[in-house]
């Protein structure tokens, strides 16, 4: 799979690579070494991803992984699907890994040309309660894995885009010549 640039040229729109589609009980991850999407684990019965979930290519977040992104799509896509997206904001999250607190924020975006969410330009434009439901999903998801999940609040697209640029810089600095 050829991984695209994070931003769509000349815009603030981003490319998102879906790992786990909306409605899936299975959690998939991109295995960079083998260039394949692989099954990581199954969620408990009755628990599914509320929207397409994946990563922003060519980024490294504070947790050392590509930056997480939840994309509001009108219908589920599939693992490995490239979704051109508009950034709405970010859910700031602190998690514990190996006894240390680490930021593991989730970018929230909407697919370009969405019929259902086309009027949203900011995380605050989403229907009342939706962001809370998304946060509750991630809290439950992490509880199943016995991981500490501490939401720190939300920010709009300007802050999210700055964090994406920071994670792009971190990724480019980690490339060894």
Automatic annotation (TrEMBL):
Q: Which GO terms describe its cellular component?
A: cytoplasm
Biological process annotations from GO: phosphate-containing compound metabolic process
Main enzyme class? hydrolase
The UniProt entry's coiled-coil ranges are: none
| Highest taxon of source | Bacteria
- GO MF term list: inorganic diphosphate phosphatase activity; magnesium ion binding
Question: Which EC number(s) does the record attach to this protein?
Answer: 3.6.1.1
Look up the record and name the cofactor or cofactors this protein needs: Mg(2+)
Q: Which Pfam families match?
A: Pyrophosphatase (PF00719)
Listed A to Z, the keywords are: Hydrolase, Magnesium, Metal-binding
UniProt-listed InterPro entries: Pyrophosphatase (IPR008162), Pyrophosphatase_sf (IPR036649)
Task: Write down what this protein is called.
Answer: inorganic diphosphatase
The source organism is: Segetibacter aerophilus
